[in-house]
Amino acid sequence: MTQQKARIGIVTVSDRASRGEYEDLGGPAMQQWLEKALASPWEAVARVVPDEFRFDAVGQQQVQPHVACALVIETTDAVGGSALAQLRQ
Fold first, then answer.
1. Distance CA 59, CA 82 (A)
2. pLDDT score of 28 more than 50
3. Distance in angstroms (rounded) separating the CA atoms of residues 58 and 49
């Protein structure tokens, strides 16, 4: 029996990163942490959205219009976008 992969959405909320002015460090750091922490097969669905993005049922449609995710994790640069990146070092 083939085990199905869970899709996990990783959403970074950042005006600068969404405009390409700033490298998203939080989302990739979260993905690396999940790769170490999860034993079951899974697939990342990463998105970067502006601060005014509303994360709700409508927002989820904008983040992943063609992909159903079992879990969606939101990161932000409100605490300094590199906070998660610094934790992994």
1. 24
2. yes
3. 14
Alpha-carbon gap, residue 50 to 16, rounded angstroms: 8
| Distance (Å, whole) CA 39 – CA 14 | 29
Tokens in use for 52? 């005014």
Decide if 22 contacts 14 (C-beta within 8 A). Answer: yes
Confidence (pTM):
0.70
Distances (CA, A) of 60 to 36, 50, 68, 70: 26, 14, 9, 12
* Residue 68 reports pLDDT greater than 90: no
Ranges of H-type helices in 1-89? 15-18, 26-37, 57-63, 83-87
Average pLDDT over residues 35-58: 81
Q: Which two tokens stand for residue 32?
A: 């690396």
